[in-house]
Write a structure and sequence with these properties.
mainly alpha; 79% helix
């Protein structure tokens, strides 16, 4: 229901802003810009889905091999102590546990192309447990918020963009991003535990969360001790080596089980194709609304208003120029990425505001995209409180990214 109102608001705000620009600024071209954006966004939604088709077919095919070979069940048992508490509605040993683990692991390694199909597989398995097929379950919402908060240990793409923009040390945003994304995820988990009445003081849950903090601390210590030029090399190596190891592990396990891996892969790949087709309407709906909102100039109105408010209360405003990245982040991944790159080109890759923007970009995932794709893939229309809590985690991540940038670079 909330997503419905937000979707309607995008169109209404775009229309109101366009009327204002026409009446008060004499801008007649804004109407053409908005309609052009609607057509471009609709085409872009189809292109995204088309691009996902191959990746989905690949990873769901591999996941089918891992499932038949028993590897997914092993992963599920490994994380069962934690996930049984975060997802109490999912039976112990259910395949969804292993799929959720695979998705979260791919996100942590910054491997978006692998994380999305793995996440869609997890959503399909959670939907199998759902008695009201059009309504999100608590487990689905917890999973979606974990994805929207975007816990990522290795932000490969952001470091690559900084290198392309000529940063003296492209990896210097690694630690601020790590802290921001961890805070976002932790806050999202705690908030949902309170909402879903999951016992936060459970010894197992506390041990896992404490262990995550220890891992984050270890990663911060390890990478801070490396030479600057080695950080990007090692992070990329670790992420891709682990991923290839998992794929080979699936194949080896399949050989041991003597399953027909080619036919099993084809069976899973067909599911990937079907899923890619299923999400097209949902992508078109959300991306067209966002595209028209941006083209109307509503984003500029919001940004300028916030900048004036910050300056009026006397707070340091160096970070304000990075606000478009924060505002665009939940709406459009490519849009927020474009904002970040534009700041680098305008102010320089090593300018403080460019680093703030990078920290914000890496702090969370694209919330509305995640909601549209994941819920759309299983036909869920009633998202309950998912939007509010995902947005809360997103805002927390942006604030944490700004504070982390001040901590490391100011």
């Amino acid at each position: 229901m909330v997503l419905n109102y937000i979707w309607i608001a995008f169109f209404l705000i775009a229309f109101v802003v366009a009327v204002g620009r026409t009446l008060f600024a004499g801008d007649l071209g804004v109407w053409s810009d908005i309609m052009s954006a609607s057509f471009t966004s609709a085409a872009g939604a189809f292109e995204i889905s088309l691009g996902l088709t191959g990746v989905l077919s690949l990873w769901l095919g591999l996941m089918k091999i891992g499932e038949r070979a028993g590897v997914i069940a092993v992963f599920g048992r490994l994380v069962s102590p934690l996930f049984c508490r975060l997802f109490p509605g999912v039976p112990k040993g259910h395949p969804a546990m292993g799929s959720i683990f695979m998705n979260v692991s791919a996100n942590m390694l910054g491997l978006d192309n692998a994380a999305t199909p793995l996440g869609l597989k997890a959503m399909q398995e959670l939907q199998d447990l759902n008695r009201q097929k059009d309504t999100a379950t608590d487990a689905m919402i917890m999973f979606l918020v974990l994805n929207a908060s975007g816990l990522c240990f290795i932000p490969i793409s952001i470091m690559m963009y900084r290198a392309q923009a000529g940063a003296a040390n492209p990896t210097d945003v690694f630690l601020p991003i790590l802290l921001a994304t961890f805070i976002s995820t932790l806050v999202g988990i705690v908030a949902l535990c309170i909402k879903q009445r999951i016992r936060l003081l459970d010894p197992v849950l506390l041990c896992w969360l404490g262990g995550m903090m220890a891992v984050i601390g270890g990663i911060v210590w390890f990478f801070s001790s490396l030479p600057a030029e080695a950080v990007q090399v090692y992070s990329g190596f670790v992420a891709n080596a682990l991923l290839l190891t998992v794929i080979v592990g699936f194949i080896v396990a399949g050989l041991r089980k003597r399953i027909n891996m080619y036919e099993t892969f084809i069976e899973g790949a067909k599911e990937g194709f079907h899923t890619a087709v299923m999400i097209i309407p949902y992508l078109v709906a959300i991306l067209v609304a966002i595209g028209m909102f941006r083209a109307s100039g509503a984003m500029d109105v919001i940004t300028s208003g916030l900048e004036q408010a910050v300056s009026a209360i006397g707070i340091d405003a160096q970070w304000v120029a990075a606000l478009p990245t924060a505002i665009m982040k939940p709406l459009s991944g490519s849009g927020s990425r474009g904002m970040m790159v534009d700041l680098m080109n305008t102010y320089g890759a090593d300018a403080f505001v460019s680093r703030v923007s990078a920290a914000i970009q890496g702090s969370t995932d694209t919330m509305f995209y995640v909601l549209a794709v994941y819920f759309g893939s299983v036909g869920v229309r009633r998202t309950r409180y998912a939007v509010g809590y995902a947005l809360f985690a997103d805002i927390t991540g942006s604030v944490a990214g700004i504070l982390a940038a001040y901590l490391f670079f100011a």
